[in-house]
Write a structure and sequence with these properties.
This protein is of the alpha/beta class and 339 residues long. The chain has a domain of 222 residues: 3-Layer(aba) Sandwich (Rossmann fold). Helices cover 41% and strands 17% of the residues. It is built from 11 helices and 14 strands. The strands form 4 sheets. A 7-stranded parallel sheet has the order 3-2-1-4-5-6-11, sandwiched between helices. Strands 12-9-14 form a 3-stranded mixed sheet. It has a two-stranded parallel ribbon with strand order 7-10. It is globular. The two termini are 33 Å apart.
Length: 339
Amino acid sequence: MPTVLLTGATGYIASHTWLALQAAGFDVVGVDDFSNSSPVVLERLAELSGRAPQFERASVCNAAAISGIFARHRPQAVVHFAAFKAVGESVERPLAYYANNVGGLVAVCEAMQAHGVGRFVFSSSATVYGQPETLPIREDAPVGATNPYGATKLIGEGVLRDLGRADPAWQTACLRYFNPVGAHESGRIGEDPRGVPNNLMPYVAQVAVGRREALTVYGNDYPTPDGTGVRDYIHVMDLAEGHVAALRALFDAQGSFTVNLGTGQGYSVLDVVAAYERASGQPVPYVVAPRRAGDVAACWADPAAAAQRLGWRAQRGLDAMCADSWRWQQGNPQGYGAG
């Protein structure tokens, strides 16, 4: 089976994708600089897969290091995760986001070009849709960034589109994620945000496990069934399997494509709170605060294109997302920091 270079490999989604790629028979070489992840992930991956991970510590922005990795391992494809991903932080530190997310992408693509590799799976985001005009969101919906993080994803998609126009040997899959949540069913790897979580489910998990007193719900006056924001939550293992399906599609046929990875089902903040209370048996107290600027009332995917193009559909529901998240959180109350 082909060797795949996995960038940002010890991050949340990438670590789960590593296991899914191995389960599908691919050889994986991981690269990360631990700027937003823990080396403990490598120990957990070894434990779960029964084999020592092939891993190189490097920044994707270090062109010489990345070129050396290509020369040593000769991957036939790249699955590119390495990116900063906090919307709020991107507003405060836009240069860091453009340098890492766009600069890193360009450095990896230059190394690919130099070593004759053209298959590329790109970690994009539903953030590129900005304020959705209609629901569910299809891939041909208007795009537009409302923050620097989203802008880096749009620019990344544009870079890959231009590469394909310049050289038809390039095959790219742009995967627009909705809201990844949950953890590996073993409870050994999961989401370990640094500082205060930016996303709903890890915050709910930390309240349930006693790390935080209460959840802050931003806005309960949206035009939704219970007044709270509605999002398309997707289990991280479904998302990981979506990357495997995208990679297989690139090996099986010529061409490039862009697809949503979501469930097509929206859940409100209070839906998630109730499901997490069921999964954990713990109360999740919350307080209501005013809406945050830039938040949309509702956002969920039309996942039909991924089903048609990749034969992929999300399989795991909200209860499984919460149960697996809780298993991870309960077993690792301080994340990877406790080892």
